[in-house]
Design goal:
The chain starts with 7 loop residues before the first strand and ends in a 30-residue tail after the last strand. The protein is mainly β.
């Protein structure tokens, strides 16, 4: 919307809790410091996300929690389906306040649904 980025809330179900696929590691830097790092895995977007971004976080379905969290799983085929885009029909999105664009703003109202004003074109040229 021009130079203003419009934030959206993406939900699973009716605002249900959901799990993102992530990885973590602990390693030693060249100077000997122990570093902990983590990342959220992404995949191609589903149809709900595709018009906004070229990727989306991997959402782990409840039936895959156990296998995703099992550190002994080394067979990629066992987790391949987990890395696919989440079913768009099981999600929803809605615009929220642009106050969310500023980390200084807090409170539930920043994530509350808003109605977008659609600009009216007054002239063709």
């Amino acid at each position: 919307m021009g130079s203003v980025k419009q934030p959206y809330c993406f939900e699973v179900g009716e605002g249900d809790l959901f799990v993102l696929a992530g990885l973590w590691d602990q390693w030693k830097s060249p100077d000997g410091e122990i570093l902990k790092s983590c990342t959220i895995l992404t995949t191609t977007p589903n149809s709900l996300v595709a018009d906004m971004h070229d990727r989306m976080p991997v959402i782990v379905t409840a039936d895959k929690y156990e296998i995703w969290l099992d550190p002994d799983v080394t067979d990629f085929d066992a987790i391949r389906d987990t890395l696919k885009p989440y079913d768009a029909d099981q999600m929803r999105r809605y615009p929220v306040s642009t106050k969310l664009n500023n980390s200084q703003n807090e409170g539930a109202e920043t994530a509350a649904p808003v109605t977008l004003d659609t600009p009216i074109q007054t002239r063709l040229f």
